[in-house]
């Protein structure tokens, strides 16, 4: 999250200047090379003192790739899809990143668990093999845009401001500023939940398989919710209403999760809360990225998208730090039922997560109030396209 902030500015500028094709190649190859380096670091042939620095170098290389991939969906949708296809195209491409996280979230415990605690080399072989798939597919990516513009907003006569001008225009827009802060905050709070979910569940005695499954369920339900909301927006264009309703319902699900996370043996309650939060919370993300493009047109898509995601990463770091500072000491009963550690000398690492989740819920509630009260967008890109269509029909 930290490295993606400075690299994010480079990715915004690069994507807008050189297009989708080169950015895709940079992202896929840097991600693959980073995983190769991490694979080397986990090998028994590497001295123990050298493993962590090498693994960190691989992690940094893969992190360098992330903005080049995550900033692409809105530009991909804008250049290659019609106006009634953009939202679902953006949804599917935006959700590919969390789907990858969910897959690895599920696969990792299969390789590294209490029976095979040092099986990192085999796990990293699997991860690197998955990272090689988009590299192989990259040989088919040789164009950044189609020969004929998909919509009037991508016609040659539409002048896009420079990168720095685009950044200034974004933050001069009240609509974009509210959207970036609230949607970015939502991304940050999701990152905080993702980091804190497993330790919060294990202290209440839930097994590791269930804990890992909840991370996967969070993203899987998000994919379903995002697909449905994308289809609704493509058909009826109600960006604002869909986002506000989804945000409020996600807040209710977050409140439910904050309560049930403090109880044992309520798997059904945890599952329902996670499923609802994923479905409603994730449905906001791709629509919000599209809304950022709508509100800042004719600013380049990667600029508005990148700024939202970078604000999310900054807030994510803040939320993770704040919530981890609020952890507490478990009572004797929690220590007796916990599944976080297997050895008594590690019990000091077991913590309770009641107050971190209350802080997390409070932050979500504040964002919902700000978003509902102050987000009243204008659809600049759609209005421009509709005007051009009407003009063409008149002539």
UniProtKB/TrEMBL annotation:
GO terms for molecular function: transmembrane transporter activity. It is found in: Membrane. Residues 1-23 form the signal peptide. The chain crosses the membrane at residues 87-108, 120-141, 176-194, 214-233, 245-263, 269-287, 357-376. It is a multi-pass membrane protein. It comes from the Eukaryota. One of its GO terms (cellular component) is membrane. Keywords: Membrane, Signal, Transmembrane, Transmembrane helix. InterPro entries: FLVCR1-2_SLC49-like (IPR049680), MFS (IPR011701), MFS_trans_sf (IPR036259). This is Major facilitator superfamily (MFS) profile domain-containing protein. It comes from Caenorhabditis japonica.
């Amino acid at each position: 999250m930290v490295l993606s902030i400075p690299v994010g500015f480079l990715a915004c500028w690069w994507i807008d200047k050189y297009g989708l094709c080169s950015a895709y190649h940079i992202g896929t190859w840097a991600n693959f090379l980073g995983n190769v380096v991490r694979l080397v670091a986990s090998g028994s042939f590497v001295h123990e003192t050298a493993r962590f620095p090498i693994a960190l170098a691989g992690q940094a290389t893969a992190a360098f790739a992330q903005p080049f991939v995550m900033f692409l969906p809105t530009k991909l949708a804008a250049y290659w899809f019609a106006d009634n296809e953009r939202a679902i195209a953006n949804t599917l491409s935006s959700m590919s990143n969390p789907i990858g996280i969910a897959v690895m979230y599920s696969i990792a415990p299969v390789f590294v668990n209490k029976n095979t605690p040092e099986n990192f080399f085999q796990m990293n072989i699997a991860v690197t093999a998955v990272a090689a798939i988009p590299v192989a597919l990259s040989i088919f990516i040789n164009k950044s845009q189609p020969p004929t513009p998909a919509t009037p907003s991508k016609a040659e006569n539409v002048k896009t401001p420079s990168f720095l001008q685009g950044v200034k225009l974004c933050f001069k827009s009240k609509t974009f500023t509210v959207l970036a802060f609230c949607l970015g905050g939502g991304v940050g709070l999701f990152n905080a939940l993702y980091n804190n979910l497993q330790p919060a569940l294990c202290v209440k005695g839930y097994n590791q398989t269930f804990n890992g499954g909840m991370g996967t369920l969070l993203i899987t339900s998000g994919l379903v919710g995002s697909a449905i909301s994308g289809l609704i927006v493509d058909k009826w264009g109600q960006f604002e209403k869909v986002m506000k309703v989804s945000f409020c319902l996600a807040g209710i699900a977050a409140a439910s999760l904050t309560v049930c996370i403090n109880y044992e043996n309520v798997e059904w309650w945890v599952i329902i809360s996670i499923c609802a939060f994923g479905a409603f919370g994730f449905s906001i993300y791709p629509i919000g990225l599209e809304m950022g493009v709508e509100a800042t047109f004719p600013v380049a898509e990667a600029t508005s998208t990148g700024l939202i995601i970078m604000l999310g990463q900054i807030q994510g770091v803040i939320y993770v730090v704040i919530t981890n500072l609020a952890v507490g000491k478990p009572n004797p009963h929690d220590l007796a039922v916990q599944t976080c550690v297997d050895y008594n000398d590690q019990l000091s690492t077991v913590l309770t997560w009641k107050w971190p989740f209350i802080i997390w819920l409070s932050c979500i509630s504040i964002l919902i109030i700000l978003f509902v009260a102050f987000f009243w967008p204008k659809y600049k890109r759609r209005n421009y396209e509709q005007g051009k269509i009407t003009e063409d029909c008149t002539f």
